[in-house]
Design a protein that fits this description.
The chain is mostly helical. It has one domain. Helix content is about 65%, strand content about 0%. The protein is built from 13 helices and no strands. Helix 1 packs antiparallel against helix 2, helix 4 runs antiparallel to helix 11 and helix 5 crosses helix 11. The relative contact order is 0.20.
């Protein structure tokens, strides 16, 4: 799963959203980082989502749609494509208004009182400035995201080439996304951490009602 999916799969609290978005940036054991408990729970939830996704039989079938040459980078392409299908089919997967939800996420990240992990805080101005949660709506946006990832890797990864190679599998990829996303969401039901404290004040003040009240 990619950023938009992780935000939607977070618990409806500002600190949970922060933790879920910071999941790839917090390295190693969560307890080794000085994170607010709710944010730490969000990081763990992010990792649970990734583990469930990676082990899902339908996800493994989607990886097999890629050629042998591209299979090792298939997870990167699938992550970005999953946010594309989530954007396309948002109304089928959430009762929330997508733009209000995204604006709520941006408000959380911009809150100067929110204890963002350092690596996330460094990236927020660039990400929000680029409106990064809205770029997945069409394949041009997906390709642009993959092209930026290509430029940032030490050795060239043919991500855009892999995307072009599977574009004829759009229906199968889209159906696979819905299966994986639905099963992961169902597996998360009940994984709620009823913590009390100041994080609830932050969520009520900065996270839009669309993002908070899912």
């Amino acid at each position: 799963m990619n950023y938009l999916a992780h935000a939607l799969l977070a618990e409806p609290h500002a600190y949970s959203v922060i933790g879920n978005l910071a999941g790839d940036l917090v390295k190693g054991r969560v307890e080794h980082h000085a994170l607010h408990p709710r944010i730490a729970d969000g990081v763990r939830r992010h990792r649970r989502v990734d583990a469930l996704t990676d082990a899902h039989p339908r996800y493994l079938e989607l990886k097999d749609l890629f050629s042998r040459e591209h299979r090792r980078i298939a997870p990167i392409v699938l992550d970005v494509l999953f946010d594309h299908y989530l954007t396309r089919d948002w109304s089928l997967l959430s009762t929330l208004d997508r733009d209000e939800f995204i604006d709520g996420v941006y408000a959380v990240l911009a809150d100067p009182e929110a204890p963002l992990p350092h690596a996330l805080r460094e990236r927020v101005p660039r990400w929000v400035g680029a409106d990064w949660l809205r770029v997945y709506g069409d394949l041009d946006g997906v390709e642009a995201v993959l092209a930026r990832l290509e430029r940032r890797t030490a050795r060239h990864l043919p991500l855009t080439e892999a995307l072009v190679a599977v574009q004829g599998c759009d229906a199968e990829l889209r159906d696979g996304f819905h299966t994986v996303f639905g099963d992961v969401r169902a597996s998360l039901d009940g994984l709620v951490h009823p913590r009390e404290g100041s994080e609830r004040l932050v969520s009520s003040r900065t996270l839009s009602s669309a993002c908070c009240d899912q």
